[in-house]
Amino acid sequence: FSSEELTRHFVDRIEARDDRYNAFITPTPERALEQARAADRRIAEGNAGLLTGLPLAHKDIFCTRGVKTSCGSKMLDNFVSPYDATVVEKLAEAGMVTLGKTNMDEFAMGSSNETSYYGPVKNPWDESKVPGGSSGGSAAAVAARLAPAATGTDTGGSIRQPAALTGLTGFKPTYGRVSRYGMIAFASSLDQAGTLTISAEDAALMTQAMAGFDERDSTSAQESVPDYLAALGQDIKGLKIGVPPEFFDEGLDADTRKAVDDALDVYRQLGAEIREVHLPHLDLSVPTYYVVAPAECSSNLSRFDGVRFGYRCENPKDLLDLYERSRGEGFGAEVKRRVMTGTYVLSAGYYDAYYLQAQKTRKLIRDDFLKAFEEVDVLMGPTTPTPAFGIGEKTDDPITMYLNDIYTIAVNLAGLPAVSVPAGLVGGLPVGLQIIGNFFDEGRLLNVAHQFQ
Ligand code: GLN
């Protein structure tokens, strides 16, 4: 069948079913069909790659030329991007067809998709549950097969956590592997683009197209990009897997633990060697993150001032009133909480006590991982402490919400690549196995994930 037929299938499915899930903020059906016809012409000309003509959805954090790019916020509800993010551009060059822009937590701040200006997303496995966040719209879209694959971003777990809670493969590459150009910034030293897919193979294919140096992103890595697909299918006999007991703390639900233990048994049967390694500073990762990420976000979000683009309040009295009311009316509660926390920890009197201290603990966390990778090839543990929780269950208590990311956040502080793969069902809901790799070891990581599938 043609790309046009395939695209039509997904366009119709979104139209028929997304009322239930709220996975899309902006579906782009006409544009998708146009891109599909262009892909069909490319295929007919013999000028196609493996991804040409395949549809996908983009998280609404990626600037998309001529399309509303809201970042899940009222602040950008009227923003039509004048340019494409590098990720959008590269996947379009590979011939992929964009079905639309997916729902997300406001400015990617959240773990449940409940902070979106466009309303919560429902988990297709159980519509009373959250899909995870912040890439919850992308996760729900793929889990409900409204799209075969989607992009996401991961600052503290926002690809891996929703992938785990919706039964998908969520892959976050090494920091710097994929360009951040045109990806609306939350915390620039942590943000990384990646994929939510049905398999590790799909993740490998898409990452191949997305990765690589980009001079428009000053932290983009100069490393060459290996052949990820060729890395799949390699024997993992003798692979050294480290299992940190710190991932198996008292917060971990017993059935989720059992699913992870069963997954480790599969790897044992495949000939891997499992040993205990320690990450002694892991318990510092959530407090460290909630200083570093808000600090960077308070700086990044200062550009939304009601002047050049985005939301502007009505009839401002003067410039200060314009700033205050545009930001006060344009941002939601969680974003305001982060901006205020960030401004506080960066202020002159508190900088040493909080921000500087957090930078030091961040280094300790990174060094723990580097030490572990002297002994083992990959690390494994659960992606989340529990399966998906109920919509509204944690909204009144930010700390409980923040603790949902306890196993994913350290990876971002260190800048490492990691993947969550479906590990089984707990009470009918999916949970994930998290696999963490060494810097730029994405090929091995994807192969280890692939062997389990
Ligand atoms: N849940 C975390 C937060 O709220 C991580 C979000 C993310 O990775 N974008 O900040």
TrEMBL record:
Membrane-traversing stretches: none
SUPFAM superfamilies in UniProt: Amidase signature (AS) enzymes
UniProt-listed InterPro entries: Amidase (IPR000120), Amidase_CS (IPR020556), Amidase_dom (IPR023631), AS_sf (IPR036928), GatA (IPR004412)
HAMAP family: GatA
PROSITE patterns associated with the record: AMIDASES (PS00571)
Function statement: Allows the formation of correctly charged Gln-tRNA(Gln) through the transamidation of misacylated Glu-tRNA(Gln) in organisms which lack glutaminyl-tRNA synthetase. The reaction takes place in the presence of glutamine and ATP through an activated gamma-phospho-Glu-tRNA(Gln).
Keyword Translocase: no
NCBIfam families: gatA
High-level lineage: Bacteria, Pseudomonadati, Pseudomonadota, Gammaproteobacteria, Natronospirales
GO biological process: translation
Family: Belongs to the amidase family. GatA subfamily.
Entry keyword set: ATP-binding, Ligase, Nucleotide-binding, Protein biosynthesis
Binding partners and assembly: Heterotrimer of A, B and C subunits.
Protein name: Glutamyl-tRNA(Gln) amidotransferase subunit A
Active site feature: K59 (charge relay system), S134 (charge relay system), S158 (acyl-ester intermediate)
Species this chain originates from: Natronospira elongata
Catalytic activity as recorded in UniProt: L-glutamyl-tRNA(Gln) + L-glutamine + ATP + H2O = L-glutaminyl-tRNA(Gln) + L-glutamate + ADP + phosphate + H(+)
Top EC class of this enzyme: ligase
EC number: 6.3.5.7
Domain Amidase per the UniProt entry, residue ranges: 5-446
